[in-house]
Design goal:
single chain; alpha/beta; TIM Barrel; 2 domains; nine-stranded mixed beta sheet; 14 helices; binds S-adenosylmethionine; binds iron/sulfur cluster
Length: 376
């Protein structure tokens, strides 16, 4: 199976809701979720999923959220042990947990490492205290740096998440912040960074506040891409940078059209079964998800994608990657308009490669313009 097979588990709770975030994440109320009940729900969903996919080797497991670093480490251990009973794990299985620096300490980080997590993805978001405050984060930059240093001792692989093109950011302040970031990377040996351009997502508090974003956001992005390359972490996907060989295997499943199970509130998965591409989605509301997972099952959407839908999705994801995708990766290569492809090559937006589709640096910036033109 090209692209491999992975498991995504979604933990939908956070200590507080960040004003920019439209993920399926909910601030924890006074009553903490019951770990035993949630464990039984994930186990029940894993058992259902294994009935479809048993025997396949897991190349990655990703605990995302929300803030999975709020999960008790014993719960994480119970879920990872159960996954390993249901599916063989690859020898080099990548097992990632997303962590918010305001929720970690030596004890829970040690617990996650002991439970089998071998890659920590730490949400620094910024290395500037005023910006962290404006973003509604529950930690300051000193806590972020301390968490990265602790994590570096405990996990073989470390990734750092930040947001760029934030209100008030300029080329000069970004340059200073990237200096601090690369100093931290040198210090911790972090092998991977995700640098997302801040987006005002409809329905969020930040969108309602409508702050001015930098006019030169594209320039800030270009500056960031160049600095990451010079620091030895070249871009491999629009927002992701890694040392050679350290790309996120789990995220590559999404971008290279692999198969993955998505379990937990609002999680989505893709499975290839008998040569057909299945798209599966689970109940979004945490209480509904919990109740259905414990009873009849939490899957609420199950569609079989047409060859055209499958091809369009693979194209959309594959063009995000620096390496692009082979035309042969599309179940229906006829979705591509060869004349449009030639025009995009002439305009410098696509590389001139006969059996392959690959955006140039400029084309990657204009992906929303490139994609619809490429389709017949
Ligand atoms: C699930 S969160 C990471 C883990 C943890 N919840 C945290 O915030 O530290 C995933 C990442 O998405 C990014 N993100 C969320 N909302 C965003 C937005 N509106 N624009 C750009 N990036 C965003 C953040 O960088 C965040 O680290
Ligand atoms: S950014 Fe992270 S911590 Fe903040 S609300 Fe979203 S998922 Fe939760």
């Amino acid at each position: 199976m090209p692209g491999g097979f992975g498991l995504y588990l979604h933990w939908p709770f956070c200590r507080a809701k960040c004003p920019y975030c439209d993920f399926n994440s909910h601030p924890l109320g006074p009553a903490a979720p019951d770990p035993d009940q949630w464990a039984r729900a994930y186990v029940a969903e894993m058992n259902r999923a294994a009935a479809l996919t048993g025997g396949r080797t897991l190349g990655s497991i990703f605990l995302g959220g929300g803030t999975p670093s709020l999960m008790p480490p014993a719960l994480v251990g119970r879920l990872l042990d159960h996954a390993a009973r249901l599916w063989p794990l690859a020898d080099d299985c990548e097992i990632t947990l997303e962590a918010n620096p305001g929720t970690v300490d030596t004890a829970n980080l040690k617990g996650f490492a002991a439970s089998g997590i071998n890659r920590l993805s730490l949400g620094l978001q910024a290395l500037d205290d005023a910006a962290l405050k404006a973003l509604g984060r529950i930690h300051d930059s000193a806590q972020g740096i301390a968490a990265a240093r602790q994590a570096a001792h405990l996990f073989p692989r470390l990734s750092l998440d930040l947001m760029i093109a934030r209100p008030g950011q300029t080329a000069a302040t970004l340059a200073d912040e990237l200096d601090r970031l690369f100093a931290l990377i040198a210090d911790t040996g972090a092998e991977h960074i995700s640098l997302y351009q801040l987006t005002l997502e409809p329905g969020t508090a930040l969108h309602a506040a409508n702050p001015a974003l930098p006019d030169d956001a594209d320039q800030l992005y270009i500056q960031t891409v160049a600095r990451c390359r010079d620091a030895g972490l070249p871009l491999y996907e629009i927002s992701n940078f890694a040392r050679p060989g350290a790309a996120s295997r789990h995220n590559l499943l999404y971008w290279q059209g692999g198969d993955w199970l998505g379990l937990g509130p609002g999680a989505h998965g893709r499975l290839t079964l008998e040569d057909q591409r299945h798209a599966l989605g689970q109940h979004r509301d945490p209480a509904t998800w919990l109740a259905t997972a414990l009873e009849e099952g939490a899957t609420t959407d199950h569609t079989i994608l047409s060859r055209q839908e499958d091809s369009e999705e693979r194209l959309m994801m594959g063009l995000r990657l620096a390496q692009g995708l082979p035309l042969a990766a599309l179940p229906d290569p006829a979705i591509i308009d060869p004349q449009a492809k030639q025009s995009l090559v002439a305009e410098g937006l696509l590389a001139d490669t006969p059996n392959h589709l690959q955006t140039t640096d400029q084309g990657r910036l204009l992906l929303d313009h490139v994609l619809p033109r490429l389709l017949r």
